[in-house]
Specification:
With about 600 residues, this protein is α/β, with parallel strands linked by helices. Helices cover about 30% and strands about 25% of the residues. About 50% of the residues are buried. The structure holds adenosine-5'-triphosphate and magnesium ion (MG).
């Protein structure tokens, strides 16, 4: 942030701390003594909890996730339980997953696709997506997963930036979205279509997945993989602008393992469910890789959000650790707690959330609904894995993102106009959240955008672009994205605290807050809200909400304007697009909307 004006001190909700006792935890958490674990932590030691490729030939994500577990009786352990939209289940043991991913690696090899070549996946959450992802990594090619709901333009944009040589998709998606752009993708050599099992696809200019797989041998030796070999290309969510292609390498797996051990507390008998789509980094780092690193069962649901379906999955699959997102939690809150009570969710022992600020009310709601608070954690596409978390053993301050994980150094800094760090700020002062680079899943580049990449670093720090503060106990609190922060009458106002206060009103389901230019005070606070069922937007309600917000936030921070909307614009990964609310309010161009949900 170039210009720094006096932040305004507003108590963050004043929600009581949720203290943890050993009986709440049910099992002994992996991270018990935070201070001691941080002090003695070394990435090298964590690396030694993984296997490395046989013969000292480096480290490969797919080997750590699949092959090393598929030995002896480990082959029969359940790796994936896939649930189709219609509710059928298909199981894959570690042995089956090893064989199929080896076959897919052989398919790529037979096509002349090798180390560093980009393989894009454009599919819904079907089993072949998981085989494609892990088989690509085995072959030391680079996986770039795309969200299946993207239209032709965003697909073309990403395939072009990523120089995709192979695209694995379905006949339906191919016809609707890829055929029209194919002639504009000269570097795309192979399109592999995943039809229904047992039915060969027959589309000119494409290859058939099942035919190729049937011809491919099941033996595959993973080639030597340097820890710095490129493994994943993930596009950011596009919340603040055009999505950037973040490059990750194979040793990112060390961080995937560490974070799922300490932040998600994965243990040998867990059944894990991450609700994110692999089209986003969460759905790959935690929806594919992390649970397999621990040799446990990963539940995959093909269908989209539906509260009752989700509770049914937790109940029937006996999910013990559940990783989800604030938008989903807010939708569950909107539907109400009564629905939860129809299900037996006693298998759950740990719930976590990521992607957006988690309102304190949502944390507490988790406790009422599931008997467990929801543990917020923070990270970005760029960081490749969780950086700041509420881990299982820690007392929660609702509304806080938690503390930096072992191995992660985070600070709140003030920057000079030239980008260098002017000072590390004292507790309870808002500033930019910065991290010391060096963790294994740190991104290595924004593909084809070195200038943008270089801008993220200065003086031995990585700058996240998010504003936050740290309190005297070392808890981090999200304030807002640097671009979203509102400057009003000499004060700096984070949209998150305004939104959190608003959704505490029974009428409000979701809120998105922006700064609207004002000749007198610089910017005024404007809120867009969607209502819970049973409420209608009216002048009376608006006045009531304004009074409610003033009482909680004070006159300076409370929104001057409130507008009712049926639904707020969001990215497909569920993030409120405040920049779009602002552009629409001001009649400005909407910019890149490739990730906007329908
Ligand atoms: P783009 O960079 O393209 O604008 P994006 O930043 O939304 O998109 P992601 O990398 O998917 O793309 O999201 C990371 C961002 O999400 C963080 O920088 C932060 O702003 C927000 N975020 C993630 N987790 C949390 C959290 N627990 N609390 C608050 N914000 C969060
Ligand atoms: Mg970002």
């Amino acid at each position: 942030m170039a210009e720094m004006i006096a932040p305004i001190a507003v108590a963050t909700g004043g929600w009581p701390k949720i203290a943890k006792s050993p009986t709440d935890l049910r099992v002994q958490p992996n991270l018990l003594d935070y201070a001691a674990t941080r002090t003695s932590f070394s990435w090298e030691e964590i690396r030694h909890e993984l296997s490395g490729l046989p013969g000292g030939k480096g480290i490969n994500i797919a080997h750590e996730a699949v092959d090393r577990h598929a030995l002896g009786s480990g082959s029969y352990r359940l790796a994936l339980r896939w649930l189709s939209k219609k509710g059928e289940a298909r199981d894959f043991t570690y042995g089956e997953l090893r064989d199929q991913t080896s076959q897919f690696a052989n398919v790529l090899r037979s096509l002349g696709i090798g180390k560093g070549d980009r393989v894009f996946a454009l599919m819904g959450r079907i089993p072949e997506l998981y085989v494609t992802a892990l088989g690509t990594l085995k072959n030391t090619s680079v996986l770039s997963p795309l969200f299946s709901a993207f239209g032709p333009e965003p697909i073309k944009q990403r395939l072009t930036i990523g120089e995709g040589r192979v695209l694995v998709t379905t006949p339906n998606l191919y016809r609707r979205k890829v055929a029209v752009i194919r002639s504009e993708l000269p570097k795309l050599e192979y399109i592999i279509l995943v039809g229904k099992p047992g039915e060969a696809t027959d589309v000119p200019g494409t290859l058939d997945y099942h035919t190729l797989m049937a011809q491919a041998p099941v033996d595959f030796t993973i080639p030597e993989t340097d820890p710095e070999d490129m493994a994943l290309l993930h596009f950011t969510s596009g919340t603040t602008g055009t999505p950037k292609g973040a490059v990750h390498v194979h040793q990112a797996v060390v961080n995937h393992y560490m974070t799922s051990k300490y932040a998600l507390d994965l243990q040998p008998d867990d059944i894990f469910w991450c609700t994110a789509d692999p089209g986003w980094v969460t759905g790959t780092s935690y929806g594919i890789i992390s649970p397999l690193l621990h040799g446990i069962t990963n539940v995959i649901d093909e269908a989209e959000f539906d509260a009752e379906r989700w509770y049914g999955i937790i109940q029937d699959q006996r999910v013990s650790v559940w990783y989800t997102a604030p938008t989903a939690v807010r939708m569950m809150m909107k539907i109400g707690i009564d629905v939860v009570k129809d299900f037996d969710l006693s298998s759950l022992r740990f719930i976590a959330s990521v992607g957006e600020p988690l309102n304190p009310e949502a944390v507490v709601w988790g406790q009422e609904a599931f008997g467990l608070p929801i543990h917020d954690n923070w990270w970005q596409t760029e960081t490749g894995g969780i950086m700041i978390a509420n881990y299982a053993a820690m007392d929660i301050k609702p509304g806080s993102m938690g503390k930096p994980l072992p191995g992660i150094e985070a600070s709140i800094v003030k920057r000079e106009p030239d980008g260098s760090v002017a000072e590390i700020l004292a507790p309870n002062t808002e500033g930019e959240l910065a991290l010391r680079p060096g963790w294994p899943s740190m991104f290595r580049a924004y593909l084809n955008n070195e200038t943008r990449y270089n801008k993220c670093f200065n003086g031995g720090w990585y700058f996240s672009g998010d504003l936050a503060k740290r309190d005297e106990d070392g808890y981090f609190w999200f304030v807002g994205r640097a671009d979203d922060v509102i400057k009003s009458a000499g004060h700096l106002i984070g949209p998150f605290e305004v939104e959190s206060a608003l959704i505490e009103h029974p009428a409000i389901a979701e809120a998105g807050v922006i700064g609207k230019p004002d000749p007198v005070v610089g910017e005024i606070v404007k809120a867009f809200v969607s209502l819970n069922s049973g409420f209608e937007g009216s002048e009376d309600l608006r006045r009531e909400l304004q009074g409610f917000a003033r009482k909680r936030l004070g006159a300076v921070v409370a929104p001057k304007e409130i507008e009712f909307q049926d639904r707020l614009p969001k990215t497909r990964s569920g993030k409120i697009m405040r920049r779009l609310l602002k552009a629409r309010e001001l009649g400005l161009p909407e910019g890149d909307t490739s990730t906007l949900e329908d």
